[in-house]
Amino acid sequence: MENGAARTAPAVIVAIDGPSGTGKSSTSKAVAAQLGLSYLDTGAQYRAITWWMVSNGIDITDPTAIAAVAGKPEIVSGTDPSAPAISVDGTDVAGPIRTQEVTSKVSAVSAVPEVRARITELQRSIAAGAEDGIVVEGRDIGTTVLPDADLKIFLTASPEARAARRSGELKGADVRATREALLKRDAADSSRKTSPLAKADDAVEVDTSDLTLQQVIECVVTLVEEKRAAE
Ligand SMILES: Nc1ncnc2c1ncn2[C@@H]1O[C@H](COP(=O)(O)OP(=O)(O)O)[C@@H](O)[C@H]1O
Ligand SMILES: Nc1ccn([C@@H]2O[C@H](COP(=O)(O)OP(=O)(O)O)[C@@H](O)[C@H]2O)c(=O)n1
């Protein structure tokens, strides 16, 4: 216990998965900040590699073309929950990865097995290096990336609640169009062959439709604390 002697609690690994707009990012950042853990937004990594493909003129309808260059971009993720950061080949892409163009193309890029293998390896090494523990959010964290996570949460919410939240963020975007785009991305993410969006058998499912963000955060913090107390 030489290295852990100064720690007040053992490192804990928390996996938070679910579809878009269920509250993964907001919840994960707040839980990590509150508990002094690192934070990893894996969706930002898939968005970053998609941004690189688009910027380099790769045909995103051609999985072979994507696979051939999947190893090229160097993606670096910050893990401070109060200052999430992401760069590609040294360029800060936190803004560009949120454009509608990237959002509409990310499911096609993230379905390519070579892309997933590369990003999964990166995610595992970041989690292994997080000395005080980490909250990792995405679509396949509990099922594939970190199947031995100490706690797995699967967030859900009705399409209506998710679309209302997202269109609120996109400053007045049409709720119906936002809902359709969300459902299309869910369908693509859930039906791909490699590591689809799915709830792990041992994940705790939390429906956030009628909960405030604060209630969801409190629920997850309590679950982490219960887990720690039991260890
Ligand atoms: N329980 C909640 N109630 C109301 N709004 C929420 C709730 N959880 C998240 N939000 C808001 O919904 C939007 C999407 O949340 P986000 O955390 O980005 O979801 P995800 O990462 O699952 O896509 C954000 O504007 C966030 O503040
Ligand atoms: N672990 C993950 C995380 C994201 N993704 C992909 O990345 C996309 C963007 O993820 P995101 O978390 O930024 O999406 P939002 O829920 O924030 O809209 C998803 O639609 C998936 O296609 C994935 O395949 N696996």
Automatic annotation (TrEMBL):
One Pfam family here? Cytidylate_kin
Location in the cell: Cytoplasm
Q: What InterPro entries has UniProt attached to this entry? A: Cytidylate_kin, Cytidylate_kinase_dom, P-loop_NTPase
Q: Which Gene3D superfamilies match?
A: P-loop containing nucleotide triphosphate hydrolases
Organism ancestry: Bacteria, Bacillati, Actinomycetota, Actinomycetes, Kitasatosporales
Provide the protein name: Cytidylate kinase
The protein's enzyme class: transferase
PANTHER family for the chain: CYTIDYLATE KINASE (PTHR21299:SF2), CYTIDYLATE KINASE/PANTOATE-BETA-ALANINE LIGASE (PTHR21299)
Name the HAMAP family for this protein: Cytidyl_kinase_type1
